[in-house]
Design goal:
The complex is a heterodimer of chains A (475) and B (475).
Chain A lengths: L28 H16 L5 E5 L14 E4 L5 H11 L4 E7 H7 L1 H10 L4 E6 L37 H6 L4 E8 L3 H19 L4 E7 L3 H4 L3 H15 L3 E5 L15 H7 L22 E9 L4 H14 L3 E8 L7 E9 L13 E4 L2 H7 L8 E5 L14 E5 L1 H8 L5 H13 L4 H11 L5 H23 L1
Helix pairs in contact in A: 1-6, 2-4, 3-4, 10-13, 10-14, 12-13, 12-15, 13-15
Chain B lengths: L12 E3 L9 H5 L5 E2 L14 E2 L9 H5 L6 E3 L12 H5 L15 E4 L6 E4 H11 L4 E4 L6 H13 L3 E4 L3 H13 L4 E6 H17 L3 E7 L15 H6 L9 E3 L4 H18 L2 E7 H5 L1 E4 L4 E4 L17 E2 L6 H21 L3 E4 L6 E4 L2 H16 L4 E6 L1 E3 L3 H8 L4 E6 L4 H12 L7 E6 L8 H14 L7
Parallel strand pairs in B: 7-8, 7-9, 9-10, 10-12, 11-12, 17-18, 17-20, 20-21
Antiparallel strand pairs in B: 1-4, 2-3, 5-14, 6-13, 11-19, 16-18
Helix pairs in contact in B: 4-5, 4-9, 6-7, 12-15
The chains are: A alpha/beta (475), B alpha/beta (475).
């Protein structure tokens, strides 16, 4: 068994020499790194667990060669693809292999996040200071003064300064081992081999993320012979990209998620499924409002609680066995703007879920009442907070206008925020939608985490109902 | 073992001249100076391979670690003397890999106990649908109005030992799906229009590499940042614009919270059946709409497909990639994709008709506008106008077979959209491809920017259409 394919069938169908030769140029560093990776995989006995993520760049065809599970990623996205594989199967060993354009330019966001997550994965970053596959353009790691096809007079301050990725990555808490190595002589090659093996071992041991940056030769685009390229890396690159261990904080194994559960019992528990039908209190559809389709609108400023009581009304309707929908419509943000909700209740099926002409409107502030008051259907009901709307607009005389001092009542009960439940109580009394118990059930369901508030809400509900009766008897 | 040179055994270097690219890295690596650049041009490769003088060699092995080619300088086999006479294929093997032939583990459907229906917001119904469909991996980036779904999934999945990963961007999220879906697992993301735009790159790669994944686009107002209101202006994108290249995916358009759950479950099955992403396109209104949702009678326990790159021995021979370098190979791949798209077109058209029998006037709408349209049809019938609603559930493939039969003999069509006419474009394109040129009159009712067409407008538009087409004017 070998960690290289016995025959590179994916390389031009493995025909002729391509069956056993790489696509790399003579003297290219990639082939060496592939060999060290293959050796480390073999020594750690992880061939069957390894997934190699090929980048875009010259190493795009790494999957021609390594006899492991292979994935080829979009440009720069190898770290994200690797995260997807790692969470899919935490037992898999992820080798993300990227060049400088892939990792340090287009894929900066992805590598930063992978390092931030710190899942045990192994990153091999091949830095040769130039774009190889696209033909010798400036890389994020191109040296100052270096001539490339897109820096024809040499890299200047206007084209930015090289990124030292190993140093950057070592500043992030996620990675536990970061080293920069090179290939220019036998000693460096041995170090590189060891670094790759260590980086993979740390993953096998579940300890964390490792990042190995390797200064590699690209003789073709440096327009040097392979041995001149080795010298160039040693003399030009190393001073800018110092070799050595940048971080080595080997800790304990931490990433051992269990297999996901598909047990139906677990699923029912987790989604809060129940076989208990909700208690019903009403004895028929509130057809005195409409024969089979009731339309309500709840409006106020953000934080008035219009959405909450709209939702409680929908839930009460559904608990009673009718079809109902609730749609919130917020202002520009979910808090602080104007906020309204449409509720529809139907005997069979809610057809259109919006309420352009509601039969019942609950309004908590003057703009809401001014905007939606005129849309209320003739014969409808308007409940408004008299505490903040002292002078309501004049609406169609067939409409029941009930100004309830919601805020004052709520303040009297000691909690201003229950003014919406005061309004709900008034609504229940005014419209006889459903019995009191029906609303109280939904309140109980909503407050299940907070029983202490239940009494207060019941008081608020009843005070609202009483206030409606008082207002009506005063008229 | 070709790739490794175990330290204990000091192998002699063996060079197959055909696999030497004459980079000369071994020359500088050799401390005994026994390797030099050759002078004879290899007639097969055109290179001048290095020449080794074995009489000076002390078997240090440094040249082996300096050779970038996997099958260049290799350790000579110990057990044979005449290896230089052997065919490289005999020496290295002719099989691509020794990995086993993978087999699929099928999905299972496990019965759920009978449960009461739930009261759910559309986005929450999607989240629960995903859990029931066996999705245990979710990747997303928060964006209104889709966020509640991700929030609920972030709460539910860890309780089932699943994984919720908040990605650094939608670009990263889709590539995590490339990895996780590529491992053969059911994974999903929820997003909204601007986020969906960012995912298109990755979707193209997933389609190219034939990887499954479920994308939920809760469409909002655009272009640009637009707003968070409900729009249907991404229909062109999901039907015709899934990134670069020859791409298509089944697009499901729910209209109720119930369908948000049901179609999410369907989407996972389709994604794996066709090994292709599936897009769910709803509108912002539907994502926020609360209604009654019945639960299915089963949950899915996913198996593991044979094609995935899971990171185990069974799947070691597999590869996920979308790069196919040789032109005839890429053409072949595209023809294969075309056959798949045709299969989807033939087998996966879905639609719903409401009172279309003997209808003279057909309203065509999807998502939330279809609900307004349903109300309008009911109202029109009450006024003696024979209206019907045709609701595409798959936007791609467009349900042309059903549409043809519904439109036969109809006098006029009204396409209702919360968008600039992209549904009408799909309708017209489908009719054209189907060779239907004798069209009824097609009118339109459109809104933009988060404004939804209302029931009353639809009633008026159909009434106008009916008044303007002379009796007996059926196409």
């Amino acid at each position: 068994m070998s960690v290289f394919y016995e025959r590179f069938e994916r390389h031009a169908h493995g025909e002729g020499l391509k069956g056993h030769a790489t696509h790399y140029c003579p003297g290219c560093g990639h082939g060496l790194i592939h060999k060290y990776v293959a050796e480390a995989i073999d020594e750690l006995d992880i061939q069957n667990r390894t997934i190699a993520v090929s980048p875009v760049g010259c190493a795009v065809f790494m999957y021609y060669y390594l006899d492991v599970g292979n994935t080829q990623a979009a440009h720069g996205r190898a770290p994200a693809v690797a995260v997807g594989h790692k969470v899919a199967n935490p037992d898999a060993i992820l080798l993300a292999y990227q060049g400088d354009g892939d990792l340090a330019s287009i894929g900066l966001g992805e590598i930063m996040q992978a390092c931030q997550l710190g899942l045990p994965m192994t990153f091999v970053f091949v830095n040769n200071a130039i774009y190889g596959m696209t033909g010798g353009q400036m890389a994020p790691t191109t040296l100052p003064g270096q001539v490339t096809t897109t820096t024809p007079t040499g890299r200047t301050r206007f084209t930015g300064q090289p990124l030292r990725m190993a140093e950057i990555v070592s500043q992030i808490d996620g990675p536990i081992y970061v080293e920069r190595c090179a290939l220019f002589d036998a000693k460096q090659r041995t170090r590189t081999k060891k670094a790759i093996a260590k980086a993979l071992r740390l993953q096998v041991e579940g300890k964390g993320l490792s990042f190995v940056e390797i200064l590699a030769e690209c003789p073709t685009h440096l327009k040097l012979t392979p041995s001149e390229a080795e010298q160039w890396v040693k003399e030009k690159m190393v001073p800018y990209f110092p070799l050595g261990v940048k971080k080595d904080e080997e800790g304990e194994r931490w990433f051992e998620p269990g297999p996901p559960s598909f047990d139906p019992g677990d699923v029912v528990r987790v989604i809060s499924g129940t076989d208990q039908p909700p208690e019903r209190f009403g004895d028929g559809f509130p057809s005195h409002i409409d024969e089979k389709d009731i339309s309500l609108k709840f409006a106020g400023a953000g934080g008035d609680g219009a959405q909450t009581i709209a939702m409680l009304t929908t839930k009460a309707a559904l608990n009673e066995g009718w079809d109902s929908t609730h749609i919130p419509s917020y202002g520009p943000e979910s808090r602080g703007g104007t906020s309204y909700a449409d509720v529809r209740i139907a005997v069979d099926e809610v057809l259109s879920p919006s309420s352009p002409h509601p039969q019942i409107l609950v309004a908590f502030n003057p703009p809401s009442l001014e905007k939606f008051g005129p849309t209320v259907s003739p014969g409808g009901i308007v409940i408004y907070d008299r505490s903040v709307i002292p002078e309501p607009p004049t609406l169609d005389p067939s409409i029941t206008m009930a100004g309830i001092p919601c805020t004052e009542i709520a303040r009297g009960l000691g909690k201003r925020m229950v003014k919406n439940v005061v309004a709900l109580g008034a609504l229940a009394e005014a419209a006889h939608l459903f019995p009191r118990d029906s609303f109280l059930l939904t309140l109980r369901q909503a407050l299940k985490q907070n029983c202490a508030l239940l009494d207060l809400n019941e008081q608020a509900f009843d005070a609202g109902a009483q206030a409606f009766d008082d207002v009506m008897s005063a008229v | 073992m070709v790739s490794t040179n175990k330290k204990k055994v000091k192998p002699r270097p063996l060079l197959f001249p055909h696999f030497c690219k004459a980079c000369g890295r071994c020359i500088t690596a050799c401390p005994k100076d026994c390797i030099e650049m050759g002078t004879e041009i290899d007639p097969v490769t055109g290179c001048t391979p290095v020449v080794i003088d074995r009489s000076l060699c002390n078997d240090c092995g440094l040249c082996l670690t300096a050779c970038p080619e996997p099958y260049g300088l290799v350790p000579a086999p110990q057990d044979t003397e005449d290896f230089e006479l052997q065919d490289p294929e005999d020496l290295f093997g002719a099989r691509r890999t020794t990995a086993p032939e993978p087999i699929s583990i099928p999905d299972e459907r496990l019965p759920l106990p009978p449960l009461e229906s739930m009261i759910l917001k559309g986005n929450h119904a999607t989240a629960i649908g995903a859990v029931l469909a066996g999705c245990r991996h979710f990747f997303g980036y928060p964006i209104t109005p889709s966020t509640e779904g991700a929030e609920l999934i972030a709460k539910l999945l860890p309780e089932l030992d699943g994984m919720f990963v908040q990605a650094v961007s939608e670009v990263a999220a889709v590539n995590m799906m490339y990895g996780c879906g590529g491992a053969g697992l059911r994974c999903m993301t929820l997003t909204s229009s601007p986020g969906f735009s960012l995912m298109l790159e990755g979707i193209s790669y997933m389609i190219g590499a034939e990887l499954p994944g479920v994308f939920f686009n809760v469409m909002r107002g655009g272009p640009g940042l637009g707003n968070i209101g409900p729009e249907q202006a991404d229909i062109k994108l999901v039907c015709r614009g899934l990134g670069h290249g020859n791409t298509h995916a089944i697009v499901l358009a729910p209209a109720t919270p119930q369908e948000m759950l049901d179609l999410t479950i369907v989407a996972f099955d389709l994604a794996f059946e066709y090994r292709n992403p599936v897009i769910l396109a709803s509108d912002g209104y539907l994502g926020q709409m609360t209604g009654r949702v019945r639960l299915p009678e089963f949950i899915v326990k996913p198996g593991l497909p044979d094609w995935g790159v899971y990171g185990d021995e069974m799947h070691r021979r597999n590869l996920n990639t979308s790069i196919i370098l040789i032109e005839p190979d890429l053409e072949k791949h595209n023809l294969h994709l075309n056959r798949k798209y045709q299969q989807m077109s033939d087998a996966e058209q879905r639609s719903d008709s409401f009172r279309c029998e003997n209808a003279e006037w057909i309203v065509i709408a999807c998502n939330t506008p279809a609900r307004m349209a349903k109300g309008a049809v009911q109202e029109l019938r009450g006024r003696g106008i024979n209206a019907g609603l045709f609701r595409p559930i798959t936007l791609w493939p467009f349900p042309i077979d059903a549409a043809r039969s519904v439109l036969r003999g109809v006098k006029g069509v009204l396409v209702v959209e919360a968008g600039p006419g992209q549904l009408e474009d799909e309708l017209r394109l489908a009719l054209s491809h189907a060779g239907v040129h004798d069209l009824p009159r097609i009118e339109r009712l459109r809104h933009h920017g988060g404004v939804l067409p209302q029931q009353q407008e639809i009633v008026e538009a159909v009434s106008e259409l009916a008044a303007s087409v002379p009796t007996g004017g059926a196409a």
